[in-house]
Amino acid sequence: MADNKQKMKAYWKKNLMTLLFLLLIWFTVSFGFGILLVEQLNNFKIGGFKLGFWFAQQGSIYVFVILIFVYVYRMNKLDKEFDVNEE
């Protein structure tokens, strides 16, 4: 029983580390690139649009969707590692 408790603590620690890492990426892209660094990024263009504007309008959404898939992949891998998968 104590072994199972330690296993679950390790599982949640890895889960939270994954979540914090992905949230940091999301915050950096949405707030950092879309708001704080917009003027510096506007010196570059992507698809004819200024990069800062692109991140504020579309780039952060694309990154958010990618992060969802990364989270699903990572959690499936963690679930299998700790034998808590639903299969």
Structure description:
By secondary structure, the chain is mainly alpha-helical. It has one domain (6-81). It contains three helices and two strands. It has helices at residues 2-36, 38-41, 51-81; strands at residues 45-46, 49-50. Strand 1 and strand 2 form a beta hairpin. The model has no long low-confidence stretch (mean pLDDT 91).
What does this entry show, briefly?
The chain is mainly α and 87 residues long.
In terms of topology, how is this protein built?
Layout: H1 2-36, H2 38-41, E1 45-46, E2 49-50, H3 51-81
Antiparallel strand pairs: 1-2
Helix pairs in contact: 1-3
Structural class: mainly alpha
What is the average per-residue confidence, as pLDDT, rounded to a whole number?
A: 91
Uncertain segments of ≥5 residues (pLDDT<50)? none
- In order across it, which strands form the biggest sheet? 1-2
Structural domains: how many: 1
The number of helical segments is 3
What overall geometry do the principal axes of the alpha carbons give? elongated
Helix content: over 70%
The end-to-end distance, rounded to whole angstroms, is 23 Å
- H/E series, N to C? HHEEH
Query: Quaternary state, please?
Result: single chain
Query: Main β-sheet, in a few words?
Result: 2 strands, antiparallel
Strand residues, percent: under 5%
